[in-house]
Amino acid sequence: MGEDGDMKRCGDPKVLAGFLEERAREWVSRRYGDTLVLPVQVVLDSAIARLRSAAHIQAESIGEGWEIVEVEQKHNLPMEGLSISGKIDRVDRHTGTGAIRLIDYKTSDSAKKPADAHLARARDDAEPYLKIQVDGKDRQWVDLQLPLYRMMLASGSARSRAVHGGAPIEICYFSLPRETAETAIAQWAGFDDRILEAARSCVAE
After folding, report:
1. Angle at 75 (CA atoms; ends 71, 77), nearest 5 degrees
2. Per-residue model confidence as pLDDT tens digits over 2-40
3. What is the Cα–Cα distance from 177 to 43, expressed in whole angstroms?
4. DSSP letters of the chain?
């Protein structure tokens, strides 16, 4: 979708859903043939249901002024003499404000907020560099994926600057859970420079 010039700008959920379903069926057909065994058919049906819900969320996103500017692109982050590489699923830009939204797709049984996926209650024996206070509570890092992507996108490389241009960067999950009513683009609310620097220190350690 993000590589198709028409689809990535499409605000019609029915058109988007049809496009995504067609691509899903093509993908499965190439790998499993046209006659599917029951387990594959069940998984395909589940995937199509999730994609239909995703199409509605994507159409809403277009209506809110977001446009896809990059998909599945590799970025690098120099850190402590090493280079950390990662592939960011998607980057959006708001046509009105210029704000940037970094998105990671997540399929799971239930939707999870970015903050809950990255921070857990701090253990007493946790290393100091893992710990951070958030909303008055002691937390610790258990995942650094989105903060790392955020650092990569603002790393100062010519390509990264071309993508975000110094604009504010939000970090989000595009959640595609089994319960399709929970499909959503979920921003990490409250993610600020203090949390970003704590993540950077943790990565450095």
Report:
1. 155
2. 999 999 999 999 999 999 999 999 999 999 999 999 999
3. 13
4. -TT-TTGGG---HHHHHHHHHHHHHHHHHHHH-SS--HHHHHHHHHHHHHHHHHHHHHHHHHHTTEEEEEEEEEEEEEETTEEEEEEEEEEEEETTT--EEEEEEEEESS---HHHHHEEEPPTTS-GGGEEEETTEEEEES--HHHHHHHHHTS--HHHHHHHTT--EEEEEEEEESSGGG-EEEE-TT--HHHHHHHHHHHH-
**Number of residues in the chain:** 205
Tokens of 101: 């939204």
For the entire predicted model, the pTM comes to: 0.90
Percent of the chain with pLDDT over 70: 97
Backbone angles phi, psi at 176, to 5 degrees: -125, 75
Q: What is the largest CA-CA distance in the chain?
A: 56
